[in-house]
Each structure stands twice: as C-alpha cells, then as structure tokens.
Amino acid sequence: MPLLRNKIIEVADVSLRYERLPVLTDIDLTVFKDDFLVITGPNGGGKTSLLRIILGLQLPSRGAVHFYREGQLAHNLNIGYLPQKNVIDSRFPITVSEVVFSGLSGSKKIFSRFTEKEQEQVEKMLLLMGLAELRDRPIGQLSGGQLQRTLLGRALVSDPEILILDEPSSYVDKAFETRMYDLLGEVAKKATILLVSHELSRVTEIANRVVRINKTLEEIR
Ligand SMILES: Nc1ncnc2c1ncn2[C@@H]1O[C@H](COP(=O)(O)OP(=O)(O)OP(=O)(O)O)[C@@H](O)[C@H]1O
C-alpha cells in the first residue's frame, strides 16, 4: 500500500543551471524509507548534481529538498555519502583508519578521544571492508579499489539512516563488488539507499526502484 509508506526525502520541483546551461529540469522525486533506489542515466545527465543537491552541497536554482522522520519534517538526517572516487584528494596526509573515523558524527580531531564504542565501530568497519591490515597506511598509497573501500567504510561507520553512493563499483574488483552488493542488501534492511550506477547489472536485482536522469527524471521501475 504505497500511501502508508514512510516518506523520507522529497525533492520538489528542483531545477539546476550552471551559468545558463540547464543541468536538471523540474525534478520531483519522493524517496521512501524502505527504498533502495538506483539512479541511472548517461554521462553528464545530472546524477551527481542531484545527489549533491540532496546532500545540501549544491543549492538548486529552483525548488527544494525536504527530509522527514516518522512523518514529520526533519532538519537533518544522518546521511552517509560515498562520493565518486575522483573527487577525493588522495595527497591529503591521512590514514585509512583516520578516514573511517572521520565518518563518525561530530568527528573529533584527536582520535584517542573517541569512545570505546566508536573505536569498536571503526574496528568492525575496517574488518568488514577488508582493510584491517591497511589501517595505518596513508590514503595516497592505496589502490583505487582500496580507497573506494575506505570511503565506503567512512560512509557506513555511523550507521546512517540514508546511504548515498555515487558509482560505488567503479574501482573495486569483481570479488569485492559481489561482497559489496551483499553488504548493501543487508544495509538496505535498516537504511534508505540511493545509488548512482551507469550499468544496470546486479544492483538492479536488489533495488526496488530505478530512475533515469537525463536533465529530467523518468521512473523506470
Ligand atoms: N561546477 C560545475 N560548473 C559547471 N558545470 C558543471 C559543474 N558541475 C557539473 N557540471 C555540468 O553539469 C552536467 C551534469 O553533471 P553531473 O556530474 O551531475 O552528471 P552525471 O550524470 O553525474 O555524469 P557522470 O555519469 O559523467 O558522472 C554536466 O554537463 C557537467 O559538465
């Protein structure tokens, strides 16, 4: 019964222009708490721009994004974000475990001040991502897939209500990709997932909705 589903994000009449160029036009999208939503579409279609608007990292030229918790407007929700790998400056002198720690809300500068529970959460995430042995390695010395897994650990460590992933499988190998999709299937039982993907392979099997964005939005499934 769709009417009883719990709305969590509402994108209302959103348009975006860069200079005069329209990137997104009249986007309306309601995301429900139990959604695993895949966003697909061509290069330059506006997928990342829409994610950035939802995250509040980019202001739309028109329209708004609203969040809800149990039917009430909410100012902010706990959102985990895995950006496209190429937006991370891997020259930044920070280690794998520090990146994962930075995903904890209100991340503190001195790591010894994290509570025991927080340290356990990070430990669990390092193991889950297969990164335990790389914990002290600076991120500049990681492969693309290892960095992607580190960033996925950061996105997941705080147990977010919404998980937003931009092309999560771009750099990971087939073995980790399969594990990642199994993991996302598990995460989806508790959290809302929005995932951008060019290819509609395995991920569409675990998603319940697929939309395509090419300036405008079309519900595919
Ligand atoms: N900061 C910016 N200034 C100007 N134009 C931009 C900027 N960021 C993105 N664009 C343009 O907006 C359009 C949409 O980009 P966006 O990254 O949202 O697309 P995408 O669907 O995520 O693409 P891809 O699949 O290639 O990652 C593109 O034409 C891009 O060149």
From TrEMBL:
It comes from the Bacteria. InterPro entries: AAA+_ATPase, ABC_transporter-like_ATP-bd, Metal_Ion_Import_ABC, P-loop_NTPase. GO terms for molecular function: ATP binding; ATP hydrolysis activity. PROSITE patterns: ABC_TRANSPORTER_2. Residues 9-220 form the ABC transporter domain. Keywords: ATP-binding, Nucleotide-binding, Transport. This is Zinc ABC transporter ATP-binding protein.
